[in-house]
Structures are given as structure tokens and as C-alpha cells.
Amino acid sequence: MESSDENSLKIAAFITLLFFFLEVAGGYYFNSLSLLGDAGHMLRDLASLFIALYAVRVCERLPTKTRTFGFHRTEVLAALANGILLLLVSIFIFVEGIGRISNPQPVGSAGMLDVAVVGLLANIYVALKLGNRKDINMRAAYLHVLTDALSSVAVICTAIIIWFTGVMVVDAIVAFLIALFILWSSVPLLREVLRILMQGAPPEVDVDKLIAELEKVKSVKNIHNVHVWSMCSNVNILDCHVYVKSCEWKEMEKIKNELRKRAEKFDIRHTTFEFEAEECSQPARHRRITH
Length: 291
Description:
Blueprint: H1 4-29, H2 33-58, H3 73-102, H4 109-130, H5 136-165, H6 169-197, H7 207-214, E1 220-232, E2 235-244, H8 249-264, E3 270-276, H9 283-286
Parallel strand pairs: 2-3
Antiparallel strand pairs: 1-2
């Protein structure tokens, strides 16, 4: 049975996909570069919706013998493809825009206005359908749709200006601004994807504070060989060596449970602790090694 989040995301993705094609067709038919730019912006929203939908569904899929980590990395690969596609869209708009600034072309402002208004209404409906949820993936999709609504407003204003003034170069200028916004939003996405693929520590996790928090647990003498990384956008992982004073097995279990609780304060819910009764060689050297 589908959850309400999954159902909302499916409806939102379908509507966004439909109006993405509408804006692409309208952009070519009415010769509007800004409308094509808005379609590119909608493409980013579409990718965000599919990633959020995948994140909702992947939680229900269990790891297999051949994919012991499950399917979380699929989200990262999809985000990488999305980021590269957005860069290509931005480059296309920039190149085309340069030519149109030096040689403005006629734009069908009336049809452009109609398409942009319909696109804005679609964005508003999708935003209302998603709502500002607590889930990070749903919230990200919601914010993407809101920013696309602003882009549609810019295209509407462009169409009105061209309609009343006949200044065609406005279309290219607004397209430049939309392309810059797409570029501005896609670069952080690619940076985040590369961080995950390179197994970098999540930016929201202060590793020194994490170690200090873990070392507050009774009987723990120090934490070293620390590795923190992300499987995907919302799954953070920690493994480390834990040097403890001599203690019985039952007490070891209590220590492990307490370490897990403290790691959860840093949004880390997948942990592996290797306990040591004797301090391994050169602990100071490995103490701050993180990934």
C-alpha cells in the first residue's frame, strides 16, 4: 500500500513532467529562450521529485546477498546525472543567449505568456500537494518547486514586457538569469554528490565534537581510527576503535548502546564499534583520521 508521501510525490512528478514537455514545446514554438530556461529549471525539480520518491521507496527495499548495503547509492548516481544534465542545460542557454543578445530574434510573447501562466499554476498546485513536510527529501522537493514558481513568474514578467515594448532582447537576458540560477543550484548538488562518492565526512557532523561526545561514556578511555561517511543524502555511517578499561561482556553491551545513542545526536544511525582491551599502536596518529 502506498504512503501519502509516495502518492503525493507521484502526482507531483507526473504534473511536473507533463508541464516540462509543455514548456519545452512552447519554448521552441514561440522561440522563447527564457521559457526553455524555465523548462530546464523544471527539469531540476523533476529530478528532485524522482530522488525524493526513490528515497521514500528505497526504505522498503531490504539489502540482498549481492547488494549488502541495499540500493541507497542509486539516489547519488541519479543526482550526479541530474547535476551534469543541468550544467549542460545552462551551457546551452548561455551559448544561445549570447547569439540572441547580439542578434535578437522575434518571440511569440502571447503564447509564451500562456505557457508560463499554466506552468506557474502547475507549480503552485504541486507545492500545495507536497506541503512543507518534516521529511528532508519531501522538504527539498517542496523548496525546489517553490523556486521554480519564482522562475515562472520571471518568464511571465518577460512576456508582458515584450508584449508592451517589443524589446526582444529581454528574453535572452532573463534566460541568462535563469541559467545562472540553475548553475548556482546545480554546483552545490554536484559538490555534495562528489563528497558522498569520495566518502567525505557529512558537513553537518563535527567529527571532533563527535569524538569528544563518545569519550564521555563511562569506561571509554579514547576513540580512534574514526571513519565517518555517507551512504546517500540521509544515511550517515560511523565506524571507529573504542579503547575501554577491562570490563565484563554485559557492561560492554551497555557501553555500545550508550555510544549508539550519543552518535544519534549527530544524525548517525549506522555504527560499528571495534572494542580494544589494549590500546593499539600509535593511537594518537590515527585519532583524527576521518573519511
